[in-house]
Amino acid sequence: MAKVDVEALGDVVVVRLSNPPVNALAHGVRTGLQAAVRAANANPAIKAIVVTGQGRAFSAGADIAEFAAGLKQPGLPEVIDELEASAKPVVAAVNGLALGGGLEVALGCHYRVIDRSVAQLGLPEVKIGILPGAGGTQRLPRLIGVEAALDMIVSGNFINAAAAEKNGLADRVAEGNVVEAAVAYARELVAAGKGARPLSAKRIEPSSIPSDLFDKGLATLGKHPSGPMAAKHCIAAVEAAVGSDYRSGVAREAALFAELAASPYAKALQYAFFAERKAADIPDIGKDVRPRAVETIGVVGAGTMGVGISLAFLQAGFPVTVVEMKPEALERGLGRIRETIASNVKRGRMAQDKADKLLSGLTGSLDFNDLRNADFIVEAVFEKMSVKQDVFRKLDAVAKKGAVLASNTSTLDVDQIAAVTGRPEDVLGTHFFSPANIMRLLEVVRGAKTAKDTLATAMAVAKRINKVGVVAGVCFGFIGNRMVEAYLEEVQAMLLEGATPAEIDGALEAWGLAMGPNAMMDLAGIDVGYLIRREHPLSEERRRLYRVTDKISELGRHGQKTGAGYYTYDGRTRIPDHAIVAMFEEEARAQKINRRTLAPEEIVERCLLRLANEGAQLLDEGIALRASDIDTIYLTGYGFPAWRGGPMWQIENAIGLEETAAKVRAYETKYGPRWKLAPLIEKCARERGSLATAGKG
Ligand code: T1G
């Protein structure tokens, strides 16, 4: 139940925000805080007020879930204004996370005491497509200065207590009990005759900041992860704090907030926030299913993926034993692990002592027996069934009872891998995305015989290594790669029809994708797809569509790693290559395709619809538990912009399912069976249903 707890300690009252797990400022908290401040000011025995949070957070901000439901009065701005108007001094005891509206509450307090060890402070509203809408854009610049405030608000980054002490956010930093420190500080203030100190009463003179500060801020924004509106509105809101009184500034803030809150980008970003967390819910695995203890890790294979996976575990503090078959491969892999950690130290991302500690947990070996004590073993060898099965036979022979045996396969049948062991219940897929130490997505592939606690263990491990675990069923390519195959196939068709690699990539990158498909294939390696297409039977149409790309691969143009693929490369800079376009032109003539110019809108639409149509099929087959899992996969593994929500969010909320069905049918008429409309979309469109409730999850 969202509320505040009030405790009188002599002449100081302590008001605790209480709404587990992060004290989101739901209606009950707002009304409770308002009532507590009123009561304290009406009580002559009370000389000061301390506001703090229950548990590990001060407050993580407004209750994001309430946005969709509609905000009830009193709103947070009103409650904070009343807090700040208290005649008696109000001291914030920041006991943990103070984010968004949580930090705005602390800014409404007159003084701030911050816990040195656990406090994290920030205004991350921009990350969910809005801006600090409870006075944060007006009070923070008045406290720490316009430039520092602009940086915090536009980046949405958190700062710790030391940084808060440095920039003036903290009046005191406490070691140990922050509430006791705040109560003592409040008494000091009262004794010294220091009372209320409202930030809103301060004025920021325009002469106090560089005249081009805001123009520069806008000019250097680039592609902000919040999309085209939020960061710009944040800058405009902070600008309204300069040279004007608080009331007019906060009115401007409210107007800008309202525009953002109504934008599709904010809705998509807030959907993405909850979608990522919903992915952890597995319908038939409740909290009663306990994950196994995992303390030691084994990784088989020290190639690109094995190195990335080892780094992901090492960086999360796990000891890792890496097993390779050949000494030179092992040394090369261990060297790359050491180099990557050393470069993190060099760039100031990691302290040397932490790097030394992580590396002390790294062991290399040529002997599978050295994995006999590992709790969780990830196989990351060559993507060929026979090679993987051989590894799993060896693991089955040496791994201890209860060890989880995970394959990093990106397409192969996990059940066939499990079948060669005597313990299929301990086997599943953990599909990491390259670079495995950076990409947040982890597809956790549930085999037919994977035990519930094996799956729960893998999901728990995913969280511990800061990955977003999403459950997938067994099929070729699981969820992400099966959808990307449909998308890449449509790209081949458009390359034949007249679009160049640069036009296709340009259109999709302008729409928001981190990287266009041709550049992505050059990064992943065109030969990887070439080999996979030889491992699996292809339809005649697919063979036809891939004829040129197969020739490109056979020419040795595998992408960045060979200096040329769809593009030629100057280092990592891609350069359009007419020779590639000429190859598609020649093939188009051979296939009697009349080439034409494709507009960016068509390129984006065809790519998006192929992705979502395949996604709907995966949902229907039960390979994906829910539509939001599919979107989470695309947002965390494929560079799909979160401010666009994801392929499934797009067809339901941006295009609409009826319009989607009509478009796909039209493409099917023009291009044939590869555009067959997914029955689930057809059904939802016909019945005005929603994909959001169509899956098992
Ligand atoms: N509202 C509602 N639920 C929230 C929440 C929030 N602000 N923050 C977290 N949760 C839930 C989350 O869904 C999960 O629920 C549980 O808490 C633990 O979260 C007026 C308008 C705080 C850093 O953007 O960044 O204030 O899955 O799994 O990894 O200007 O949550 O357990 O049911 O993420 O330790 C601004 C968003 C709001 C902060 C903790 N605040 N939250 O991370 O745990 S807008 C934010 C986070 C605002 C004002 C404006 C993270 C975290 P469940 P978790 P975590």
Describe the 3D structure:
It is a single chain. By secondary structure, the chain is an alpha/beta fold. It folds into three domains: 4-261, 2-enoyl-CoA Hydratase, Chain A, domain 1 (Alpha-Beta Complex), CATH 3.90.226; 297-474, NAD(P)-binding Rossmann-like Domain (Rossmann fold, 3-Layer(aba) Sandwich), CATH 3.40.50; 481-693, N-(1-d-carboxylethyl)-l-norvaline Dehydrogenase, domain 2. 49% of the residues lie in helices and 13% in strands. It is built from 30 helices and 20 strands. The strands form four sheets. It has an eight-stranded mixed sheet with strand order 13-12-11-14-15-16-17-18, sandwiched between helices. It starts with a strand and ends in an 11-residue tail after the last helix. The chain binds (2S,3S)-3-hydroxy-2-methylbutanoyl-COA.
Distance between the termini: 26 Å
Helix content: 40-55%
In CATH, the topology of the largest domain is named: 2-enoyl-CoA Hydratase, Chain A, domain 1
CATH C-level class of the largest domain: Alpha Beta
Any idea what the CATH architecture of the largest domain is?
Alpha-Beta Complex
The poorly predicted ranges are: none
Radius of gyration: 28 Å
User: How many β-strands, per DSSP?
Assistant: 20
Assign the structural class, choosing from mainly alpha, mainly beta, alpha/beta, alpha+beta, or little secondary structure. alpha/beta
Strand count, sense and barrel status of the largest sheet are: 8 strands, mixed
Give the CATH superfamily of the largest domain.
2-enoyl-CoA Hydratase, Chain A, domain 1
